[in-house]
Give the backbone structure.
Amino acid sequence: MSAEFTGHRISVVIPARNEAGAIGALLDEIDAVLRPCLSYEVIVVDDGSTDETPAVLAERRMAGLPLRVLRHDPAAGQSAAIHAGVTVATADVICTLDGDGQNPPGDLLRLLRPLLCGPDQSLGLVAGQRTHRNDPPPRRLASWAANGIRRALLKDGTRDTGCGLKAFRRNAFLALPYFDHMHRFLPALFVRDGWRVMLVDVGHRPRRAGRSKYGNLQRALVGVVDVFGVAWLIRRRRKVWAVAVAEPKP
């Protein structure tokens, strides 16, 4: 085990829906990256899959991977899946990545290092930023437009909140206001709660199997509505610190 990460343990949370063609290889990659370095568990939240995803997950559990499986039936969405996985996680630091295999597991340690080995306890979130997206042009264009609107309104300094590769403190995440699609606004929400956010460039691979769960129009409409809601949450935030008051002696 790597001396750099000695004594550390993490939880990896993966939302997955109909990813039978990708999830097995992804879990094997994660194990190859993390097992030599630190103790870990993987929590896959099967969000209402109708393909062979449950069977693939059962095979990997039988093979001895440190894997736990939750299931939503019917599907509840990516934010609900991530929130459910973080809620049952047993480690203090969480990593997330998508179940389609496009996020390279080799980037996990780059996200974890500042949280596990760095001295800054005010760092709450390390967010991946895809440098070269391997998605069709219409999807990249829709994402570029949505990111531009979000940056203009929230001023979160993040060019790519849709990247599934993230690492964060579990207690900080669970203290955030929960709502559907919140996973796309984590940098702004962490800053709202007084945490520092670090951005790290990561890779992005072509999809191995399956297809995207979002249409471009659906993604754009949902994003525009939600960004105004997050802007309202930020404006309404008032941090109050409790101070102990000495009571007079009887």
About this structure: The chain has a mean pLDDT of 86. The domain at 3-236 is CATH 3.90.550.10 (Spore Coat Polysaccharide Biosynthesis Protein SpsA; Chain A). DSSP finds eight helices and seven strands in the chain. The chain has one domain: 3-236.
